[in-house]
Amino acid sequence: MLEEGHLRLRPYRLSDLHALHAALHESIATIGRWQDWCTPAYSLDDARHWIAKTRLAWQGAGDECALVMADRATDELVGSISLNHWQPEYGMANLGYWVRQTRQEQGFATRAVRLLARHALQATDLRRLEIVVAVDNQASRSVAKKAGARFESIARQRLMLRGEPMDAAIYSLIANDLR
């Protein structure tokens, strides 16, 4: 568990099932615009599967380290942050995040990016984290900038959204960016 200010980052628990489902359903207009999986069809079974997958990863059986972003005072699930697409031979991983619609623009994502990045770059063999975000996703780009990530490039057709290629802005974080 990592904590700072009003934020707690912790592993998913089975008790997060209904909160995760509700958070995603309230956020279809904002998160669903950029994530294929955030749709009205997202079910309790989908949420259950995701939680089980994240718990297995914590036991070394997966390739994604996902954490709940929670309000430290109430433990309310406000979003999620993860490290994925690990490339150990290069000391790199991708960092992704989302915040439920009713808790957006309250600093949770920026603080979570900085907190997890600092921890990952100090406690693991990672030396570089990438944030890959759709060019038009201004909210996520703003989080990356506020967290201290450096804009590096526009990668053409780097992402797929609903079966269509999409250009992405690439940001990076290394240890020196977090001082």
TrEMBL record:
It comes from the Bacteria. Transmembrane segments: none annotated. PROSITE patterns: GNAT. Signal peptide: none annotated. GO terms for cellular component: cytoplasm. One of its GO terms (molecular function) is protein-N-terminal-alanine acetyltransferase activity. Pfam families: Acetyltransf_3. Residues 7-177 form the N-acetyltransferase domain. This is N-acetyltransferase domain-containing protein. It comes from Dyella japonica DSM 16301.
